[in-house]
Amino acid sequence: MTTFFTRRTALGVAAAGALSALTACASDIRPLAGGTGSASPSEAATASETASETASASASPSAATSPSASASASAASGLPSSGKSYKGAIKFDSYEKTGEYVPASATNPAENMPKPVPPANMKEHSVDGAYAFLSFWLASLNYLMMTGNPAPIEHIYYNGYGWEKYQSTIKLYASGAGWVYGTETPYIVELLTDAPREVPGSDNTRFIWEGYSYMDPKMMRHYRNQPEKATSADESKKRVARFRLEYKDGKWELSSAA
Fold this sequence. Notes:
Elements: H1 15-20, H2 41-48, H3 51-59, H4 67-70, E1 88-89, E2 95-96, E3 115-116, H5 127-147, H6 161-165, H7 167-175, E4 178-181, E5 187-191, E6 197-198, E7 206-215, E8 220-223, E9 229-230, E10 239-248, E11 251-257
Antiparallel strand pairs: 1-5, 2-3, 4-8, 5-7, 6-7, 7-10, 8-9, 10-11
């Protein structure tokens, strides 16, 4: 899949390598158990319909909000919808608050950061349900990157997924050796269309939602006894991403985000 962040590194290597683990989460997104994460022929055909659009948009990030960048999409899903537009930066507002929230800084990690909780409509077979699911996934990923706590993202995958995939990040936070600050949303996704596009022949069960993904330019990484590391220009560059969603067994699944 597309690498959104610096690649994952094993804990115990050089400090610079351990520091990169703070933002390795999104580069280590994996398919669900049993999935391949690659596009089927019908998915590839669907994606190719917008290839020229997304390629030109990638070359010009400001095109993310232009009519030409999103003209292909909103009526293509076939899913029930409230009619709400979901084009633009993904937003999430379902949080559990415990104690006084203290934002992260160069001297301390965040304290009592509000925890994302699954939205009530996250399992709906609808455009709104798909968006609720995708926004919860993104909020859970950012929460993991800000706290080292994988509990929310395991609602998306399975118990033990966080420890299996993000050991370095979890251990860094647990030891107090490193953390992220300067933002509450290290990983940003902007959707290019109002609704996902159905994969032909999938009987309204598989969808692709095109967007951009990038690091927040304000994000900083702290590591004990090392210089603070800012987000690089390459990390904050908008890159085209295709989120492949499947509705199965009464709920949404994310097979890949490449």
